[in-house]
Design a protein that fits this description.
InterPro entries: Ion_tolerance_CutA, N-reg_PII-like_a/b, N-reg_PII/ATP_PRibTrfase_C. This protein is α+β, with helices and mostly antiparallel strands and about 110 residues long. Helix content is about 35%, strand content about 40%. The protein has three helices and four strands. It has a four-stranded antiparallel beta sheet with strand order 2-3-1-4. The chain is elongated and about 45 Å long. It starts with a strand and ends with a helix.
Length: about 110
């Protein structure tokens, strides 16, 4: 199962999230990208606490193409230091994972 990952990133607008999602799916780097939001993020930036409305992208992909996923996100991301985290999928529905692999190989 560890061949599958979910990659998450946050952006400042729904339009940015949609752009990243579209590029990843069009390039067959993601079988699906879910866009959730708006969400509120609280974090340290340049020595002060910030509160920002953001949109979360949950990207379904495979570990073997992570580097290309990360590169594509960075090329389309508006942040100076974007959050890009890959989380391994430990278990999942066999039919869903077969579908995901098929979509990534187009």
């Amino acid at each position: 199962m560890e061949k599958y990952i979910q990659v998450i990133t946050t952006v400042e607008s729904k339009r940015d999230a949609e752009r990243i999602a579209n590029v990843l799916v069009e390039k067959n780097l993601a079988g699906c990208v879910q866009i959730l939001g708006p969400i509120e993020s609280v974090y340290w930036w340049e020595n002060r606490i910030e509160r920002t409305e953001e949109w979360l992208c949950v990207i379904k992909s495979e570990q073997s193409i992570y580097d290309e996923v990360e590169k594509t996100i960075k090329e389309n991301h508006p942040y100076e230091i974007p959050e890009i985290l890959a989380i391994p999928v430990i278990k999942g529905d066999k039919n869903y994972l077969e579908w995901l692999s098929k979509e990534l190989k187009k």
